[in-house]
């Protein structure tokens, strides 16, 4: 089971504006925490702070429960697939190892490619794959990194609804046991995939997190469950109100 992550923030100002308020964020080990909130509230900023892509403000603390550093143990998946157009699928999935000067584990890469339903397409270039296939390739590349912490910034938002649904089910299985932060605008995605939902609510002193209750069951929850549909409506209303 992956360690948990805690981020204590004394607040964060950007461009002269209070973006995030003073808060402590606890992301449980081996679980998926979904972050939702209105556009511009600071979701990606929070993710970037955890990823080390922007400096922590003075007085902030970012810790993993095993006492180790997070740097080097994080896999990132964003809205864009960021596949390199001149590499084939296998080359893209094994890129991380080769950039680090290591010999990639091709067997594992092939198994992951198969697990995202792309077996037989190992030699295809990104331009020969559909948008949904490219996101599946990006998911395989993210998992190839085999990191305990996975940060996902709207990973499936550019994909049609049925493909997104399939990818969510796939991701829930493949991400099991990792500590995942998932930024999404999609209440259904959060309710299907998360063990915990945090809604970032804007406030004059900076946004602060609120827990949103989840229906019973483990991810991936079935979309047709009445309890999930009721939660979806409640979450949508809460997000509309927060905006
Ligand atoms: N480097 C920066 N300098 C100044 N302001 C910034 C910087 N980065 C982000 N911001 C501001 O911080 C706020 C939060 O941005 P962020 O991208 O985290 O929001 P978000 O909740 O992820 O939005 P969206 O849902 O639209 O992606 C925005 O008002 C943005 O303009």
TrEMBL record:
Domain ABC transporter: 5-227
Family annotation (Gene3D superfamilies): P-loop containing nucleotide triphosphate hydrolases
Homology family: Belongs to the ABC transporter superfamily.
Organism: Teichococcus globiformis
Record keywords, A-Z: ATP-binding, Nucleotide-binding, Transport
PROSITE patterns: ABC_TRANSPORTER_1, ABC_TRANSPORTER_2
Pfam name, any one: ABC_tran
Protein name: ABC transporter ATP-binding protein
Recorded GO MF terms: ATP binding
SUPFAM superfamilies for this protein: P-loop containing nucleoside triphosphate hydrolases
Superkingdom of source: Bacteria
